[in-house]
Design goal:
This protein is an all-beta fold. It contains 1 helix and 11 strands. It is 2% helix and 48% strand. Strands 4, 5, 7, 8, 9 and 10 form a 6-stranded antiparallel β-sheet that branches. A 3-stranded antiparallel β-sheet has the order 1-2-3, with no helix packed on it. Strand 7 and strand 8 form a beta hairpin. The longest helix is centred in the C-terminal third of the chain and has 4 residues.
Length: 160
Amino acid sequence: MLAQTEAGVWPVAEVASAQPRAWYRRAVAFTLRNLKQDVENIGSVFDGPQDLEFRAATKELELEQSALTYQRVPPGYRFPFGHTHKSQEEVYLVVGGSGRMKVDDEIVEIKEWDAVRVPAGAWRGYEASSRGLEILIIGAPNLGQGIREDVHGQRDWWTD
């Protein structure tokens, strides 16, 4: 059975009689990964506390146009490095806890579901409150193998 939609004609995979609309099936290449189970925690390379999590999921998700990282910063801890990118814009989405983020010379309070866009060229760093901080970082464009040429980091960049 075929169904006509604005996007074209698609084979109908399932029509749920209890639901007001049909679900359409089409071939889409996608990747499914569990960030906690399928992506290696490389937090230890940052010389921080043992429970610092840093999971760079770009390669595992086979992302072509963007990048994705999950980080969990333990309560009361400041991530030890600030960094900047020549060409990559990033969005920091707080998915748990709260803390503070420094972008260039400005410090802002961040809480669950806050999103902070950081343009290329701006320095950034973050720290967790007493509740800890969980963030997803979405970057674009995907830098692929050229990430080392695009990023510049500095240990203890944020001091007060």
